From TrEMBL:
UniProt xrefs under Pfam families: DnaJ
Protein's organism: Pitta sordida (Hooded pitta)
Record-level GO cellular component terms: cytoplasm; vesicle
GO MF annotation terms: clathrin binding; kinase activity
This protein's record includes keyword Transmembrane: no
Any GO BP annotation: clathrin-dependent endocytosis
Entries under Gene3D superfamilies matching the protein: DnaJ domain
Cited InterPro entries: DnaJ_domain (IPR001623), J_dom_sf (IPR036869)
Name the record gives this protein: GAK kinase
Keywords: Kinase, Transferase
Domain J, chain residue ranges per copy: 28-92
Length: 92
């Protein structure tokens, strides 16, 4: 997780576009997302919601990756809060 967030702290676009690199084995609901798919605030919101559905701690309860999912979920939530606080701007 630390390697995943390094250099991307609170950057929701960067975290979503690299989420596939930190998901546990057997997780096949998430398809990689490119930065080109995360240009507008609406696109970011759409993929953020999909991402938290995949890693939500309630879905991982009792699973070996439960703590891992919680950490990913918290990082995504922190980044989303930062995105909203900065005014949810488009990339261009």
């Amino acid at each position: 997780i630390l390697e995943w967030i390094e250099g991307k702290e609170r950057n929701i676009r960067a975290l979503i576009s690299t989420l596939h690199t930190v998901l546990w084995e057997g997780e096949n609901k998430w398809k990689p997302v490119s930065m080109a798919d995360l240009v507008t605030p609406e696109q970011v919101k759409k993929y953020y919601r999909k991402a938290v559905l995949v890693v939500h701690p309630d879905k991982a309860t009792g699973q070996p990756y439960e703590q891992y999912a919680k950490m990913i979920f918290m990082e995504l939530n922190d980044a989303w809060s930062e995105f909203e606080n900065q005014g949810s701007k488009s990339l261009f």
